[in-house]
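User: I'm writing a tutorial on reading structure tokens. Could you give me a worked example: one chain, its sequence, then its tokens, then a sentence or two explaining what the tokens reveal?
Assistant: Sure. Here is the example chain.
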Amino acid sequence: METTTVSLDAMSVLLIEDDDIMRLSLEDRLRMEHISTVSAATLAEARRCLARGHVDLVVTDVRLPDGTGRDLFHEISASQPGLPVILMTAYGSIPDAVDLVKAGAYDYLTKPFKVDHFVETVRGILARLQGERHAAALLAPDGTSFAAGSGLLGPSAAMRQVEHLISRVAPLDSSVLITGESGVGKEVVANMIHHNSRRAQGPFVKVNCAAIPLNLVESELFGHEKGAFTGADRRRAGRFEQAQGGTIFLDEIAEIPPEIQVKLLRVLQEHLVERVGGSQPITLDVRVLAATQVDLPDAIEHGRFRADLYWRLNVIRIGVAPLRERREDILYLARQFVAQHASAMDKRVRGMSPDAERHLLNLGYPGNVRELKNLLERATALCDGGRIELHDLAPLQGAGASVDPSHASAISLRAAVEEAEQDSIRRALESCDWAISQAADRLGISRKSLWEKMRRYRIEK
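And here are its predicted structure tokens:
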């Protein structure tokens, strides 16, 4: 069997199984896969292993000589909420395992199982956990480099195109104009351009043009000499000077007053800046990135923005689509944000329930990615268990979180399809007296697919 090439050397598994032969066999196979593994034959040994060091995943038999996997799961839920637990169970104990999955356990495996399937399941969970942590770090405000084609910004075609553009423009020194609604992630794109450029070791200076008082815009951008105006008691370098050798990011560029736009155009054309009250030009070595949520051609038409400045900034344009138009990115981003917030809050929250994820998919997101991130920050803070539940999101429901009407029919159709699939599975199982193989044949799917759907929909006898 071909396995994934993701390195899991830093991940650790605790395996609890009282059958010596099976435990050693599974342990050896995991170590062959370069997965750090510690094992225990009893509940007492498992407790000691958990107390000794960090574990990323627990795999335990349901029945142990001195207790049960149920006991261990509830202890972990109380002491290390969010630590994923997989249960190994014989056929007769499946109801117990299903109950524990409903209570928050990650999954269960029914004995006898193939070792390849066991390894594939463990690797998949560890790879997902590792990916969430890695992506959460890269999605932080001061994000770092990424590999082109990694899909870091999201799996949608729109964001993969943005990622492709970033990889193409990052090595250049051309100006870039990043457009999109408020909260779509324009600053994240700017961060990635800088951190993947030859200027990555230089400063990355961010300027929110909308937040600067009008009478201070010129001084803030270009600096001033001592005595240039009342209160200027010393020389001050402006943001452009502070960005020497690096990148300046002018967010909300449309908010710069027209009289300052003329001076900004000269700076971009001549790569020179003069401090307010000064007469000596300062040569600049700065790359300029700008962002706006305003339709600049419309602003030009209405005399609010200079056409020549627009064309100077708009050498390369990267448009970021709103979240409602790339809904396949929602859960991907949500999982990264949960991992990021949980780490910052030192909480063992490791994901979301299916109901919570379905709820996130149905929201309208007028605030785009920023709204999603803030929503999950509060949900993570409110979460008392190992995963975010629907009730953790409930306090945030309001006018801003309504379903986008343009997606209502698609959401209803998806829900209807899932409901019909669940109904078909239940009827097939009942007609076959819950014989899995017969029901799978009747439905025209494999036995494995039927098991996966039963776990997904929580269908039990």
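What the tokens reveal: Confidence is low (pLDDT under 50) at residues 1-6, 138-145, 396-412. The CA atoms of residues 172 and 293 lie 24 Å apart.
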